[in-house]
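WARN no homologs supplied; continuing
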Amino acid sequence: MDNTRHASPRTSFNDENDALIPDQHDDQHDHDMDQAHTCGCEYNQHVVALLLLSFSFFLLFAPFSAIQNLESSLNASDKLGATAIATLYLVYTAGCLLAPAVVGSFGPTKSMICSGVFVCLFIAAHFHPSWNSLIPAAVLVGLGCAFMWAAQGVYITKIAVNYAESTGADKFAYLGLFNGIFWGLFNCNQVAGNLISSVILKAGQSPSILAKLFLVFLSLSAIAVATLFLLPSPEKSGTTIDRTKNNTNETNETNETTTKYDVEQHNQDDQEDQEGLGHPDKGTPPNNTASLEVMLKSMITILARREILLLLPMFLYSGFVFGFLCSDFTNTLVRESLGVHEIGLVMSVFGLGDGLACLLFGKLSDWVGRPPIIAYGVVVHALIFLFLLTWSVHANAHTVLYTVAWFYGTADAAFCTQIYAIIGVRFPNDMEAAFSTYRMWNSIGMAAAFYASAHWAWHLKVVFLILLVGVSALGYAALLLSDATLLNGNEEGIDIDAGYLQRVLVKVCGGGENSGVGRGSKFHGTGKNVA
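OK structure emitted
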């Protein structure tokens, strides 16, 4: 696929974007001697960047996750805590529309640092919580998290691609591993944050004890922001790519798999360049206003992309299923059976299972592909929800609830690691918009779960989750089938309409010669399976 697509939004940090484009010359292994001498340094830089990023997010969100779990209880007066969380996610959803422009203008590193400061302000507001302090802080952290998660997706994709290129591997070879390591370390924040709050709050909830708790949390978040300053740039210096030759210098194997879709994309990219959307190799970046307009437009137009439309149910489900865990599972099941004091411990088991599974699935997906990992998440979550439909809560159900929490976490890990890898592979030139779209729908799903917690019956929520995870699986299967259709040249062009979805469902249910994409399949002429 021609990588000039949507080039203009990236012209404010051209070198970072260049790092995403692999050198496609015929003799790919003839590197310069200077690059060979610095190869080891490149490896270390990318791995260090990954570990620093994971460590900083772990420290930053351990306090945030614990506060989120306690907010409604600690600030129950006039529903201040619940209102603050609702405001946070409302602003978060709206902020996702601005995230591509912010990350594109300031770069992922600066965006994450500024967002980290907002999280610190939110924690500091809890020393004297009131409507005048907590609500404005929630607005800031809502915006900050929207920018931060879009920037995180861009940053980790860049360093994974750069690491792969420095080893001579396919540019997406380590995307699953890098995402797995990040999410494995990050999800352990549930363990640390909940354990810290449980230990400190054992002595009570007096103002002095709460001040001690928030002082510890603020200190951790400050260390996290300081760590973000140490992040190396995701740019890959010394690499200049002529993108106009990106599809002409492919290997013979890639040329054999180039489809009509590639040609149509190439023509569309050329037309965009002629319309003055900019080209990063021309050395004349557009003004900030034009760049902002293009990025906002890309955020809207990406919603019409075939891949996004088919992945939307999974985006929505990933938020709803986590919101259900934080609201209904902890309140309706854990509190009723074990008591409030064990909510933190149960969530710690969830976080531990989530973190360890992320480490496993990140590497495993590079060996077996993404579909089996996603299938595991779908099946395990579906089985859990079917069990919850028939199970009646009773006192001291330690074995059942801790087991459910563990497997709930492992299934959540399947979606966390693979969604980010899928976006990184499929939208290398629209990463800000794609990651922001995912986080926006994820937050919509989470907000809907908190709303449903107060207004829907228990069985209705569980049945809805079963249906939504099924639709998510069908959407992903349809995406794989549409890839196969494009590769085999059986469609002149694909529009997501009722007729197309009907054909996909027929193939899913009845099979057919194009009913799947093999591990070695190629997509868009890149020579890489994007499933």
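Residues 184 and 355 are 4 Å apart (CA to CA).
OK
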